[in-house]
Amino acid sequence: MRPDVVYNAYKSVKDEKAKVIYMSPQGKTLNQKIVEDLSKESHLIILCGHYEGIDQRVLDKIVDEEVSIGDYVLTGGEIPAMVLIDTVSRYIEGVLNQDSIQEESFSNNLLEYPQYTRPEIFEGEKVPEVLLSGHHENIKKWRTEKSIEMTKKKRPDLLK
Ligand code: 4GX
Predict the structure, then answer these.
(1) What are the residue boundaries of the structural domains of the chain, listed by start?
(2) Is ligand 1 within 6 A of the CB of residue 70?
(3) For the packed helices 78-89 and 32-39, what is the interaxial angle rounded to 10 degrees?
(4) Domain 103-159 - what CATH class?
(5) Separation of CA 137 and ligand 1 centre (Å)
(6) Is the CB of 68 under 6 A from ligand 1?
(7) DSSP readout, 74-107?
(8) pTM value surpassing 0.85
(9) Residues 12-43: pLDDT tens digits?
(10) CATH of domain 3-89
(11) Residue with the nearest Cα to atom 5 of ligand 1?
């Protein structure tokens, strides 16, 4: 994309506090820490190219941070931009209730514990007894244990 076109678009939306994020496979890989840091910014401008990226001269002038959503190739940065918006907006007050942010995956470097709904017996499989007990302290302990167990099994890299 041409630098003058991008620069005009930038000038039309920027203010002194605006932070410009460029979505690119060359950026640092998005994780929950980066999401949390970005959610504290007062103004984000997300820039993305399609097919070939953007003229380097305007990037050098306006980009503060380059962010990738992972090591695979997309046709454009639109979906990465949507991923960033989705993950960051969860931290904006009123989007979610605070509890669901506290307990979720990655906030403590652990995966989320398994969820069970109804019915109590599905195809012969029962909901774990402790969850039906109404004993909130035991339930909390069970969930923490499960989180650790699942993380060890599925994502041991998170524990290092
Ligand atoms: N995480 N793409 C950006 C255009 C492009 C090419 C070169 C900068 C330099 C991607 C990703 C991603 C494909 C979006 C290429 N931009 N973006 N596009 N993975 O693969 O963010």
Answers:
(1) 3-89, 103-159
(2) yes
(3) 70
(4) mainly alpha
(5) 46
(6) yes
(7) -SBSHHHHHHHHHHHHTTSBTTB-HHHHHHSTTT
(8) yes
(9) 999 999 999 999 999 999 999 999 999 999 99
(10) 3.40.1280.10
(11) 53
